[in-house]
Amino acid sequence: DLESHLLRCQQLPVTVLTDHQDLSNTELKTILNSTAPRQYRIRAKLRTYKPQKLYQSIKLHCSKCNSLTEVPDGDDFAFILQGSVITNHNPELHNMSWYDSVTWTTEDQRQRKIAIHFVKHDEMLQQPEDTLLMIEGGMLKEICKLAKRFKCVIPVRSTEHDLEVLDLSAPFLLQGNIKYYGCKQCSTPKPIKSLSSIAAKQQPSWEPTEIAQVLGIELLQYVFVMKFTLVDGTGALNAYLLDY
Where are the beta strands (DSSP E) in 23-122? Predict the structure, then answer.
């Protein structure tokens, strides 16, 4: 794997970067004293790389403001969901023309009220694998379970006039095991009723990019980021890798 490969590179006396084979090798000191952008071919040793654990290399990137943020862990999401449970449901927002609603009360001590809104197409419910649903009052375990069966799941809460997505610290959309996040700085979330424009299409695909666009959310992309420190005896150069 990549981690063991990097360790082997550190143990070797020299790491050869083979790109630009038409160029002769350049000392790092020369590169450090040059102005960018230029292309070089170097012969150097990999001294260190960060992060040490590969899972820490995964970040969220906004192509609009170019920000990099950490991927929130499950505890953050669970905490936000717990806060949304306190919000009272608005029954006037149930069973609208473009979605059907089902509600029930959990049998645990808290007796949470959960509402699931199934988006319809041509006034009909679709097959689970083609269905987008919205859930109010659900906890992490319940939402992940639904995401495995239905095409898309959007955690929501009630307002006076419409449903809305939760705090953008949480994923605004789940599709299978993938969680989709929006940029807090660049997004201007719209009411959930904006989704009715997709439901009205001849064949709604419920693609995350389209959902994000109609909801006014700037979609964050998962990126792989690493920092390498290269040395050759004349200087040390930090190299950064960023890839989708």
Answer: 43-50, 58-61, 68-70, 99-105, 113-121
For residue 17, give the 3-state DSSP assignment.
coil
How far the first Cα of the chain sits from its last, in Å, is 18
Residues 235, 239, 244: CA angle, nearest 5 degrees: 175
Helix and strand totals (H; E) in the chain: 6, 14
* pLDDT digit string (tens) for the chain, length 244 residues: 666 666 665 555 555 556 677 889 999 999 999 998 888 888 899 999 999 888 889 999 999 999 999 998 878 888 888 877 767 788 899 999 999 999 988 887 778 889 999 999 878 888 889 999 999 999 999 999 999 999 999 999 998 889 999 989 999 999 999 999 999 999 999 999 999 999 898 888 899 999 999 999 999 999 999 999 999 999 999 998 988 8
Closest C-alpha to 71, from 84, 80, 63, 61: 61
Q: How far apart are CA 244 and CA 237, in angstroms?
A: 23
Instruction: Return the DSSP state at 67.
Output: -
- Return d(Cα 41, Cα 78) in angstroms, integer: 48
- b/e map of 9-44 (b: 16 or more CB within 10 Å)? eeeeeebeeeeeeeeeebbbeebeeeeeeeebebeb
Q: What are phi and psi of 61, to 5 degrees?
A: -120, 135
- Residue ranges of the domains in the chain? 74-179+192-202
Residue 220 near residue 182, CB atoms below 8 Å: yes
CA–CA gap between residue 188 and residue 182 (Å, rounded): 10
